[in-house]
Structures are given as C-alpha cells and as structure tokens.
Amino acid sequence: MSESRAADGDQTYDVIVIGGGPVGENAAGRTAAGGLRTALVEAERVGGECSYWACMPSKALLRPGHALAAARRVPGVPVGERLDAAAVLKRRNEFTSNWDDSGQVDWAVGAGIEVVRGRGRLTGERTVEVGGRVLTARRAVIVCTGSVPRTPNLPGLADVEHWGSREATSAQEVPSSLVVLGGGVVGVEMAQAWARLGSAVTLVVSGERPLPKFEAFAGDLVADGLREDGVVLRTGVKATGVSGVDGSVTLSLSDGSSVSGEKLLVATGRQPATFDLGVEQFGFTAGDALPVDDTGRVEGVDWLYAAGDVTGRALLTHQGKYAARAVGTAVVTGAQNPQPWTASVATADHTAVPQVVFTDPEVAAVGWTEAQARDAGLDVRVVDLDIAVAGSSLHADGYKGKARMIVDERKRTLVGVTFAGPDTAELLHAATVAIVGEITVDRLWHAVPAYPTISEVWLRLLEAYGL
C-alpha cells in the first residue's frame, strides 16, 4: 500500500478517517489492524497538531528549563546561569522532525493505512470529497479533525500580527518580550517556557489566578512558580483592545492600564474543528462539537463516528487516542450498546480523565475537582496535604507541593486526585488506576509506597483520612 493510492484506483473503502493527527492515526490503525481497508485523509501533516505544534514541541521547550531548575535545587550539582536558547530551539525542531511528516506517513503505510492528501468534506451518506475526488465508505466515516484556537472578539486584534499556539511552539527566535493573554494550560506553559529562554513575559489572566479549571491551590502554586521565573502576572483584568506600532504590540486592559511586548500570544481556548466539514447537512452547526455516544457514534447518524477534540468531551491528546481506540474497536466489531469498561467504549471520559500541566511546579490531576464532585451530588470527604515526605526532601531542597484526595464516602473510593509540585506527573497514573478500578481506601492502604520516594504521599493522605 502507498500514500494516496486512491487517486489511481478504487475509491471505495471500508473506513474513511478524516484527520491524520494522533487521534485519527489511532482510529485508522485500529480499523486497518482489524482487516478493514482504511483511508486516512489529512490536509496538512500526518501526525497533526500534537506532533508539530502542541504536545511535543511545547514539552521540548519546557524540559530544559525544568532540568536547569531541578539541578539548582540540589546543592553540589554544577549548573550554568541560563539556558542555551539556540540549542533548545534546535532540539525542539528535531522533536518535530523539522515539520516533515514523512516518518509518520511511513508508519501509516506500514500499518496498512492508505494516506490521502487533501481536505476531507462530508458530501452525503458515507461519502467524503477530497480535492474533487469522492471517496466512499462501506462501513464508517470517522471524524478526527481536532480543534482550532478560539479567537476572541477583541478590537484591533485582526489588524495586528500575533501568535497563536502554533506560532508560540514553532518560533525560531526568542522574543525580547512577550505578552500572553489567557491563563489556561497553553498560556501558563508558554509563559514559563519563553521566560526561561530569556523573554520578558507578562501573563494576563481575567480571573484571580491561572488554571481556573483546576483546584485553586494548583493555580496558586503555578502562579508562584511563574513569578519566580520573572513572569509578571496581571490578574483580575480583561483585555479590551489591541494595537501595534513599530514592532511592539500593546494590549489595553479593563482597569485602564496596558501592557506591551514584542509579541502577543493569544491563548484563550480552542473550539472543535467542524468548519468546512459538511456537518450542516446532518443537522449540526459548524464550530460546534459533534455529539457522540461512548462508542464514538455521532448522534442520529449510524455510519458516522468521531473521536478526540472534535467531540468536545476531553480536549487532551491521550484521551482522544483512547476514544479513537474505542471507536476503531466498535467499527471493527460492529458493537451495539456494549457494556461499560469494554474495549469499544470510552467510559473513562466521564470519570477518570487525567491531565498534566507541564509547568514548574507541575500540576497532575485526574477525576473530579471538589466542586465538580459536590455538584454531582456526591457525599465526599476532601483530604488536603502538603507534599512533605522523605522522598520530596531528597528530590529537591525547599520542595514545595500540595496534594488533594477526594473520597466518595458512600463507596469509600477515590473520585478525584490533584498533585501540584515539582515532578508530580509521575504520581498521576497510580491515581488514575485507583479511580478507574474503584479501589476502596481500605484496599489502597495495602498498596505500600516505596521509601524514600515522593509516592509516600499516598500513605500520608490515607493516614490523614483516618486509616
């Protein structure tokens, strides 16, 4: 099989996947492995946003700064004064394969997937138009087009050159100064990455702290970490307008003040990429999420499936890939109303979505926040604890972190866990397993953490609970 073989031969497939990012790759890989002739339609680069403009390059930008900060927290480790920005950007370029997707295409071809270049658009029942050609699916079309930045309606913004998330992760030079609008994950990660690379960064947040969707203590700790890196935080203010002159961008704020920088990064959220997709003919609105059941089947259209950001369920690469595996399994097996926690349903979307914010300190969370659990009507007990164990003391001098465990008192199982502190991401999977497995706190007591590791915080949480 080869790339775009459909251009020369049979245009009928068992499955057509629109969108060749990680989610589409997983869906296509699953159906191809199941013996179904599968086309993967991609308008830009196979590997998608995550590989070239999101997960991989952003973490490549962040990691060197984290390593330097970690070394500084351990006396006796020789460290330099600052990062080598050119080397960091060169390594970032290598992680994106210099924005060349040939390696991803080779993987797809080797997996038995036929790659079709071009923008896919639904034109009717089981039909997809790509560059004037019409492809037909015998069994299913799976939409995995992801999401795009949500641009605010801000006076002057359209007239000023500015960064979105793509520009922020692919820039080849460090700006002398950067204004970041938005205190979500992209905003805080990019604020810290560029600050540590030498840019003077100002972060503008409309609320009282960044990361408003997480527990408040997590946002507070991240705010402290940003300030330690020299980031100026402007909280509780909204942007009212943008202007630009002579290589500088100025953001006007609701309190009458303004902030300026060489570059402006607008990081105010994302929305499903359902524009120019043909969803209107099936009763959906362009720009809105496609509603799906847990197998990924789109509401009211028995042959149409979707996975990932385009569904609006959990805008995270790993969760989209999980949903894609469920969709692929459901299409291969023809599953109808499968039981929860089987391979063809994305059950965890509702109860156990893990997420890491890769700042320093890191934030790692899974399940519900306290507010979400109470809003759901659960009788919960919340256990809060400073992360202060032998493992954290050895890990870094002055280690500062916090943990929260939320217990459903009726079932005595965990429904939410949040860690915030240096290198807490590696604690997250244990919490995810505990929530997915509905392990009682009494049983969890017998999962003995190794000493001396930061994981010993689990023992302290359970002791604080009363075991």
Mind explaining what this structure looks like?
The relative contact order is 0.12. The termini are far apart. The protein has 3 domains: 5-53 and 96-148 and 271-348, FAD/NAD(P)-binding domain, CATH 3.50.50; 157-268, FAD/NAD(P)-binding domain (3-Layer(bba) Sandwich); 361-465, Enolase-like, domain 1. The chain has helices at residues 22-33, 48-52, 55-72, 85-95, 102-110, 165-170, 185-196, 216-228, 317-333, 370-375, 390-395, 428-436, 441-444, 457-465; strands spanning 12-18, 38-42, 113-117, 120-124, 127-130, 133-143, 147-149, 177-181, 200-205, 232-235, 239-245, 248-253, 258-261, 263-266, 270-272, 304-306, 354-357, 362-367, 380-386, 402-408, 413-421. Strands 1, 2, 3, 4, 5, 6 and 16 form a 7-stranded mixed β-sheet that branches. It has a 5-stranded antiparallel β-sheet with strand order 17-18-21-20-19, with helices on both faces. Strands 10-9-8-14 form a 4-stranded parallel β-sheet. It has 467 residues and is α/β, with parallel strands linked by helices. The model has no long low-confidence stretch (mean pLDDT 96).
